[in-house]
């Protein structure tokens, strides 16, 4: 059976001026065209050729000897070539660009973005790209351990969990939601530090430095926010983690460390309900 979206070895059953027709021996009545410009020199009926099966611009099943950057059941980073209201078109190494429907986008994409997508067959039996369900395809068997610095690509944001990252475009990782990732976009490649490896192999990541190195930046951030509030922050280090996360874009523990540093330096005073600049 000829499989859309997959590579197959098929036999030449007929030669024509514009190419050759390929088929499986057991189902020679189901044929697919390999255009003449891709037919290996000297090919004759009965020869076997490995091809990728997809659909051309007129929605006809066709084969190619070109190597696609993405096959059915796989995921890979592809470059956005153009963006339209109905979706985007991606470069996957074939003459026809791959369509990414708007409803299959996890966030707004722009031309030249390189985003992680998977290949699927839609209801109209067309090959399309999707940014959804990448999480399920990522590997959990990474070679990394706590303290390692890794590179990864952002592929999803979740208000409940955090920022999902594909380490090496292969392994499952996540930055917790209490870290400020508002400056990131889908497709960004980042450098992060592994803070832990879960029992199932997924990686916990952080963009922050180690606590003693990060404290200076956090203390500076606290002072900046105090200035934004005209010198009086309307909450303190005993406030809820949700309030601190919303206002400071940092965890309660990081906030408490920064406030403690500023207090020892006598730059602030802490009251029952606020923090004041001295």
Would you kindly provide a written description of the structure presented here, covering whatever features stand out?
- This protein has 278 residues and is mainly beta.
- The chain folds into four domains: 7-64, OB fold (Dihydrolipoamide Acetyltransferase, E2P), CATH 2.40.50; 75-130, Nucleic acid-binding proteins (OB fold (Dihydrolipoamide Acetyltransferase, E2P), Beta Barrel); 138-206, OB fold (Dihydrolipoamide Acetyltransferase, E2P), CATH 2.40.50; 211-277, Winged helix-like DNA-binding domain superfamily/Winged helix DNA-binding domain (Arc Repressor Mutant, subunit A, Orthogonal Bundle), CATH 1.10.10.
- Helices cover 14% and strands 40% of the residues.
- Strands 3-2-1-4-5 form a five-stranded antiparallel beta sheet, with no helix packed on it. Strands 8-7-6-9-10 form a five-stranded antiparallel beta sheet, with no helix packed on it. A five-stranded mixed barrel has the order 11-12-13-15-14.
- Strand 4 and strand 5 form a beta hairpin.
- The longest helix has 18 residues, at 211-228.
- It is elongated, with a radius of gyration of 27 Å.
- The relative contact order is 0.09.
Relevant CATH superfamily of the largest domain: Nucleic acid-binding proteins
According to DSSP, the number of beta strands is 18
Distance between the termini: 77 Å
What are the low-pLDDT stretches, counting only 5+ consecutive residues below 50?
Answer: none
Shape: elongated
What percentage of residues falls in helices of 4 or more residues? 10-25%
Rg over CA atoms: 27 Å
Strands ordered across the widest β-sheet: 3-2-1-4-5
Strand % is 35-45%
Q: How large is the count of helical segments? A: 3
Output the CATH topology of the largest domain: OB fold (Dihydrolipoamide Acetyltransferase, E2P)
Overall average residue pLDDT: 90
Q: Main beta sheet: strand number and arrangement?
A: 5 strands, antiparallel
Number of domains: 4
